[in-house]
Amino acid sequence: MKTKQDSIFSSKTLSYFLQLAETMNYTQAAQLLGITQPALTQQIKKLERTVGAPLFYSVGKKLHLSDAGRTMLSATHDIYDVLNRATDEIQQASNANTGTIRVGLLASVEDSAFTGFISEYYLDNPDVEVVLLNMTRHDIWEHLENNQIDLAIMYLPDDTIKNWKPYESRRIVEEQLLFLHHSEKLAKRKRVHFNDTIENPWVTYPESYFLSHILKEAYKNQMVDYPQCVAQFTTPYQITQFLNRTGVNTALPNSFYQAHQEQIHAHAVAFDPAITFELAFVYRKGKDEIPRVAQFLEGFDRYLDEKDYLSRVAENRVKLNE
Length: 322
What we know:
Elements: H1 4-9, H2 13-23, H3 26-33, H4 37-51, E1 56-59, E2 62-65, H5 67-92, E3 99-106, H6 112-124, E4 128-135, H7 137-145, E5 151-156, E6 167-181, E7 191-193, E8 202-204, H8 210-221, E9 229-232, H9 236-246, E10 250-253, H10 254-260, E11 267-272, E12 276-284, H11 291-306, H12 309-321
Helix pairs in contact: 2-3, 2-4, 3-4, 6-12, 10-12
């Protein structure tokens, strides 16, 4: 006999509910889930019929959680927390030298230091499979929430997620954005004021990307108009190619510039004041107690103790070019 619990948990209904609760927009939630808006609406109505109360209500065009919706959201987070803790407890009993470690890497992060480390890690731990996945911020948080990756490598601070209680972070390096340009009058400067960066058009990351967000905040704080953007790309390699061919400006992390400065046909200079942020490992609490994950993180610490992060970036750039 099918129970009420079966009706709630027998499909992806809760995942759909969580996504809608996060975005508060049916169209956006459906796009992120990869389904049609009518299909999402049908699943939410099915869940509401099962619990016997509306979970959302609208005021004008704006969607809100009802009291029942807030209760369901809290219960759903509790369910995921229980399942994640159970998974972690099972994994903590596993061997440090076997199994799989899944790592989500923010797509805009220079990856050479990490691929170099993973190569060395494999030589010492051939029975541990490391899966490195390039992801957007949204994908990283979704995979962390659903326990689908063990570690994320991303930029912080990130205000995408409001509830940090289930997560911990471990700093890798402090990053800095560099202004890349083709102006000879700025070529010899060690730092550049924001007012001097807006004369020519820019190529940037899409607006939803972390680096675009932090850049816009920096210009806003300096009370300087944001540069005119003529193109947007999702990877630093695409941005560099466009920069080289068109002569426009951009801003990229110092680590990426250090890794690819021979291929970047532009001058690089720091902003004044500097735009800084952290590159860090982010993971659910307790993940670093799983033997193979703890060993992986300790190995990465030793890797950077021997040579700092930027040296590792430069070292692996050279190796790839040989």
